[in-house]
Amino acid sequence: MSTTSAPTRRRIPAAERREELISAAVIEFAKGGLHGTPVERIARRVGVAQPYVFSLFPTKRELFLAALERGFERLADTFKRAATDYREGRAPAECEDAMQAMGMAYKELLASDRDYLMLQHQSYAACDDEVVCACVRRRYAELIELARELTGADAERLNEFFWHGMALNVAAALGVEDLSSDCPWIQAELR
Hints:
The chain is mainly alpha-helical. It has helices spanning 14-36, 39-46, 50-56, 60-87, 98-112, 114-125, 130-151, 155-174, 184-190.
């Protein structure tokens, strides 16, 4: 007679589950935004019940904000890593300075992780919510200050860098390389 018992399930600590939920929220909110994403979908992705999600994040907005924070942290880490790589001689040879290295790293991030790109768009779209807007404004301002600290760039160069970055966001969301008025895909759309 066999006395083999069923394997016991490992209890996952709340902090680990919280991280899993934030990762799942990045994916789901990137697709549906704050208002169009049911918390149940995020819970299912992690394999927990919806009430458990609310035990860790009392509101859907708090979970959305946690996902936004994760996205902005990812951008800041990308900038820091690129600037460090430039200073330590590990940036691509065509980089003339840390800002150019940061821009190239950002382009790579846009190409490699669409969820973070789309979450960024969703964060701007959710700015009708005052709390979300305050978070997005603060984190965007912090990114600008981080870029200033990492590069020593003046206001004009920082403005160009971030304006260009926003154009890159739109191009990446559309799945195109160029947004100029005479580029081939725009001309084809107008025909």
